[in-house]
Amino acid sequence: MVEWTEFERSTIADIFSKLNYDVAGSNALARCLVVYPWTQRYFGKFGNLYNAAAIMGNPMVAAHGTVVLHGLDKAVKNMDDIKATYAELSVLHSEKLHVDPDNFKLLADCLTIVVASQMGSAFTPQVQAALQKFLAVVVSSLGRQYH
Amino acid sequence: MSLNAKDKSTVKALWDKISPKSDEIGAEALGRMLTVYPQTKTYFSHWADLSPGSAPVKKHGKTIMGAVGDAVGKMNDLIGGLGALSELHAFKLRVDPANFKILAHNIIVVIAMYFPGDFTPEVQVSVDKFFQNLAYALSDKYR
């Protein structure tokens, strides 16, 4: 089980309570598809992903970004057992979606950048450490059921 | 993932914008790296103070960004241009090259914090590629 300090718990709760899920989710996913274009392989049905402008303006990307961020909510609300919370989602990503788990880290990095741009100087090194630890646990849990 | 003309002009344009703050960016990025990735502290056991904002962190952040700025001017031949630095890291400092990626991530986070409007996804992809190529050049002489 992951040990969380009081600071880490309150920091994660604080970040997510202030996040606009639609904006942050769509930005993070779009950013991932632009910065790491091989991730587009999972979104063949999303229509026009031909260039950055198309990706940033694509409504299916935006909608899916929101879905992903709401998925993170489960972890925020269950920080003491993220592994169990994500067991089903991990199976889904492995057996149905066939997503290379390395990609989870790429999306997590993009979300970190989006949060950093929004928070500015409030994104202190300690806040960054807490967010990255949280996202690392999420990433690990999502990869747990792969075999 | 080689740098094309668009990458090079994007990186140069961004560097022109951020270079006035490069010392600060370097210090912030290094401080963050030591905090968020504590294993990186193993390379700095000779420093009295490893906390963000300390004197050795500020000084070294400035050194690092000076080298980054130098690399911006050498994008047409990073391996040739950074040969001496690569030898330094390979034979004297013996930094595990995996750490170059870690530092690059933190520099990118700081750029995003300070220049959110400029650090669009399109700019990020070119900057990410630049740091990847820089890391590759820096590890060139290792073996």
TrEMBL record, chain A:
Entry keyword annotation includes Transmembrane helix: no
CDD domains listed in its UniProt record: Hb-beta-like (cd08925)
Domain of life: Eukaryota
Keywords: Heme, Iron, Metal-binding, Oxygen transport, Transport
Gene3D superfamilies for this protein: Globins
Residue span, Globin domain: 3-147
InterPro entries found in the cross-reference section: Globin, Globin-like_sf, Globin/Proto, Hemoglobin_b, Hemoglobin_oxygen_transport
GO cellular component terms, semicolon-separated: blood microparticle; haptoglobin-hemoglobin complex; hemoglobin complex
Gene Ontology BP terms: hydrogen peroxide catabolic process
GO molecular function, one term: organic acid binding
Family as reported in the entry's similarity comment: Belongs to the globin family.
Protein name per Swiss-Prot or TrEMBL: Hemoglobin beta embryonic-1.1
Encoding gene per record: hbbe1.1
From TrEMBL, chain B:
Transmembrane segments: none
Domain of life: Eukaryota
Keywords, in A-Z order: Acetylation, Heme, Iron, Metal-binding, Oxygen transport, Transport
Sample GO molecular function, one term: metal ion binding
Matches recorded under SUPFAM superfamilies: Globin-like
Keyword field contains Iron: yes
Regions annotated as coiled coil: none
GO terms for cellular component: blood microparticle; haptoglobin-hemoglobin complex; hemoglobin complex
Domain Globin: 2-143
Keyword Metal-binding: yes
GO terms (BP aspect): hydrogen peroxide catabolic process
Subunit description: Heterotetramer of two alpha chains and two beta chains.
UniProt record similarity statement: Belongs to the globin family.
Function: Involved in oxygen transport from gills to the various peripheral tissues.
The protein's name in its UniProt record: Hemoglobin subunit alpha
Taxonomic lineage: Eukaryota, Metazoa, Chordata, Craniata, Vertebrata
Gene: si:ch211-5k11.8
